Amino acid sequence: MAIIFDLGRVVVSWDPVGIVRSVRGPQGAEQLAEQLFNHPDWLEVDRGTMSLHTMAREAQARTGLSVAENLAILQAVPASLQPDPAMLTLIAELHGAGHSLYALSNMGHASIDWLEQHQAFWRFFSGKVVSARVRMMKPEPDIYRYLLVSFDLKPAECIFIDDSPANIAAAEALGIRGIVFTDVASCRQQLGELGCLPVTDKG
């Protein structure tokens, strides 16, 4: 079985408010996170069509911060993407059980470059498709097709794990079985029910 993982909020942490707090402190962190990360410009960074410097400049009017201040927040993102130890254990078990693992993520260049340089979990993965590198994004059907074609995968032999129901729905429309991720324990249980791992004994 090919098991495809989203990265942010599945394999690694994604906490926009926490990122802002780490740079600016707690005051106004929620609003700043909304202004920066819940904005179309951030999607363009993920798509690979906007640089962090350009986004920092364009964000001045809505954040009230300078280019340098905005950029400091944006540049703090990569190092904030820390893996979940429980998920790493699950990934290692799935790999050990003979499954092929892949990543499919909406992520900008700086973040994926940092993860490749600093994280060791890639040794378990057979391949990855990242939005900024292909200029396509979930839930657009083409990015799923790109993954399938690139690694010669059959939809019926794939399971996709993502925290976004919309991304799961797009995968299922192409014949890929989906798991909406909420936590590692639930994900493990669902994978067990699909025959990928022994079903957890609930006692």
From TrEMBL:
GO MF terms here are: hydrolase activity
Question: What name goes with this protein?
Answer: HAD hydrolase, family IA
Superkingdom, natural source: Bacteria
Q: Which UniProt keywords apply?
A: Hydrolase
Which CDD domains did the record assign? HAD_sEH-N_like
What InterPro entries does the database record attribute to this sequence? HAD-like_sf, HAD-SF_hydro_IA, HAD_sf, PGP-like_dom2
- The answer on whether this UniProt entry bears the keyword Hydrolase reads yes
User: What Pfam families does the database record attribute to this sequence?
Assistant: Hydrolase
- State the organism of origin: Aeromonas veronii AMC34
List the SUPFAM superfamilies. Answer: HAD-like
